[in-house]
Amino acid sequence: MDAEEEYENVKGRETVKDQENAVGQCDALEDDVSVEVRRTDTGAAVCALAGDLDIETMEPAELALAALLGERPPVLVVALQGVGFCDSSGLNLLLRTRTSAAAAGTAFRLAEVPPTVMRVLELTGARSVFALHATVEEALAPAP
Beta strands 45-53 and 75-86: pairing type? Predict the structure, then answer.
């Protein structure tokens, strides 16, 4: 194929001029996961994720969680209500973040876990290692 021909990338959102450019195009794609971060008056951090949390889309979530852990908040809550899909890469991100939070002395909690993500946690046995909460407010409440 001629390098000047235009090819649609995997997501069909942008066109690229050649195959070489297509390989490095992943970073320029619109992300399928959105990340919203807020901090509370007590210094806790809440990271709300929405969209698909998989190997192709998790980079923004991964970067945000790493940055938040670098700030060493007393509590980090990841709100998952908007996540429609989570593969093993997304689960691995949550598990790694939990481990890093523990090492940093940060309490790590999941909130608003949708049924699709809960199923992944249950099937893998990972449900038992997370502090799960129905709401962000409940996750931010002091531990009894």
Answer: parallel
- Retrieve residue 89's tokens: 């890469």
Tokens of residue 50, six digits: 């929405």
SS3 31: coil
Can you name the residues that pair with 8 across neighbouring β-strands? 15
CATH T-level assignment (fold) for domain 31-140? Transcription Regulator spoIIAA (3.30.750)
Sequence ranges of the domains in the chain: 1-30, 31-140
What are the tens digits of pLDDT across the range 21-63? 333 333 334 448 999 999 999 999 999 999 999 999 999 999 9
Structure tokens at 116: 């699709």
Q: What is the per-residue pLDDT across 64-113, written as a single tens digit (0 to 9) for each? A: 999 999 999 999 999 999 999 999 999 999 999 999 999 999 999 999 99
Query: With the CA atoms of 44, 58, 35 and 107 taken in that order, what torsion angle do they form, in degrees rounded to the nearest 10?
Result: -10
DSSP string, 47-107: EEEEEEESTTT-HHHHHHHHHHHHT--SEEEEEEEEEEEE-HHHHHHHHHHHHHHHHHT-E
Rounded distance, CA 53 to CA 64, Å?
13
